[in-house]
Amino acid sequence: MVESFEFNGQHIEVDAKGYLKNYTDWSPEMAPTLAATEEIELTEQHWEVINFVRNFYLEFKTSPAIRVLVKAIGQSLGADKGNSKYLYTLFPVGPAKQATKIAGLPKPAKCI
Amino acid sequence: MKKVCVIFRHSPIGNTSSREGLDFAMLSASFEQEVSVVFTDEAVLHLLPEQQPELVGSKDYLATFKALSLYDIDTVLVCQESAKQFGLKESEFNFEAEMASVKQIQLLIQQANEVVVY
Amino acid sequence: MILHHIQSSVTADNALSTCLRYIDAQDSILLADDALNCLLNTQWQQRLADFKLYVLIEDIEARGLSERLPQSANISIIDYDQFVLATLQHTKVITW
Predict the structure, then answer these.
(1) Residue of B38, B41, B30, B26 lying closest to B1 (CA atoms)
(2) Nearest C-alpha in C relative to B104
């Protein structure tokens, strides 16, 4: 069964868990709507991570698993942000899971 | 921590076995196994730059090989003999990998706890 | 000591050739399914002459090859239980 929602008059398809079927359907304006389904209100800190996973996906065509996300964020945004405690403060249910959903990406394989 | 060696021996694009192998390698690395990767036979063509798998309806999983080092997969060997057969040089590799002799690959296979071929 | 498991015909797949490139002199090879047909070919018999080979009795009889396989000291004909035993006697199994 294909789920979908309306956004700016467009039909956006998502999977059973609410991840976008097609990552090119995404736009930054859509992020707050997706974040609301995770009960997250976006701040600048959230955006930093969302942009990061989005760029990661565009470069590597895969959503980063949590361990890789922590490592790669540490390398590019600094050690104070490249740790799971900081990322869990922003995305309490699971940074890789929630940040990729809000960034309009597929769910990372077997992630926590 | 187990030493897992993942060997790719099939061509890119025309079949899905390499995609499965890549998923397996990254998953094993996520579960903190010591993963190494070998490209042999026609699979050395994975290293070719400027491939556009989407043109023939395949997912661009080749870009994902560039993320191997982020998954702490640092041993990526390419069979020199096979590379020679397909006219591939180390300087044109599309992601970080090292040309290796048959002897080097034999050693890696012997030292691994598990060897999985895709 | 590795047990190399080949399960496709040499005319359909490079598995056996690739295996032979990386095999160690101490290792053994299980020629299962259509892989065993190559033993009818003298060139392949020669390439494999220095390795311990296993073939499954079911595979041989299913293909009517009982009288046609070469009588050679390096070839062991085994049943399924002996195959399980062989996998345990090796440090690992690689399925090519």
Answers:
(1) B30
(2) C22
